[in-house]
# Entry
Amino acid sequence: MVTTRQGAALTVLGIETSCDETAAAIVRRTADGRGEILSSVVRSQLDLHAAYGGVVPEIAARAHVELLDAAIKQALAEADLRVDAIDAVAAAAGPGLVGGLIVGVTTGKAIALGLGVPFIAVNHLEAHALTAGLTDNLAFPYLLLLVSGGHTQLLIVKDVGAYERLGTTLDDALGEAFDKAAKLLGLGYPGGPEVEREAARGRATVPLPRPMLGRPEPHFSLAGLKTALRHEAQARAPLGEQDIADLCASFQEAVAEIVADRTARAFDIYIERLGPNAQQALIVAGGVAANQRLKAALEEIAAIRGFRLVVPPPELCTDNAAMIAWAGAMRRARGLSDDLAAPARARWPLDPDAPPALGAGVKA
Ligand code: KG4
Ligand code: ZN
# Structure
């Protein structure tokens, strides 16, 4: 096995196949610890899944098989590198849809084996968590709010491999709630951008609950909000254009208030745990971070509480392989790598010691 001296420059190929994006990227970590994206290729499978209103795992896995090799070739070409310039290969190994993960992990292992370089099995959530180091050279510790189609978590990021989960969702993920809201209002998939667009011409006048507001633990619960939205929609049926816009605006407003409240609670716990002198920074990742109303609510609460807000550009908030390569580079810089028996894992919590959140259907 090739060993890499801590602090040496590293060029890493990253592979992401955990959901419905087939992605490959090349990232260089300089000797002083900064990241540089040499290329980042994302092939969305959105059109393959749109007709079903959600990601179909079997279709996703097959599409990864078809798209991944070309994505890797393109990433190398755009970085203007030959494959033997790669010092390590990192692949997302979980959590996610296991069929797709197997495609990425197996491909990554094969390339690493062929080149005689280390393989790193990257936790997809860790990659989101570490993105702030790539985009903003942000030092540890910081607070992470991860809000995507599959995850809703508040975590203290203390170091590579050291995470404390403060909050999670008891039921639906935030993006999933947007997608379900869109579906019940007859809007397209993915639902978040559709709801945001409709909300822009609506009034937030429909009474909707704010589940979990004020609770001491910064958990989320979104199923009740979705059910309330359904009842309000049924009460107004048949829905006119203005009804749909008002329902969307009201839903988005409720979500923004919930997220601001839960994040403010996480600020308190962060300071309780790390003391008042710890760096106070919040990084937001995941597709829902693209929502402008949510961003404004977070900006407001962060400003009030004196936390710096870091929102990476949308292409690095949503699923991509640059974050996987960067997480691999950070792990490699600490001398970490995985053997070729490393499995693809459907569930892989970042903080295995987190006490279970009470409620049905809790997501890792
Ligand atoms: O991180 P992401 O691209 O993929 C994964 O889930 O891994 O997140 C996709 C989710 C979808 O549920 C989508 O509806 C939501 O992010 N989303 C949004 C917006 N853009 C994407 N939700 C609210 N507002 C948006 N503008
Ligand atoms: Zn993700």
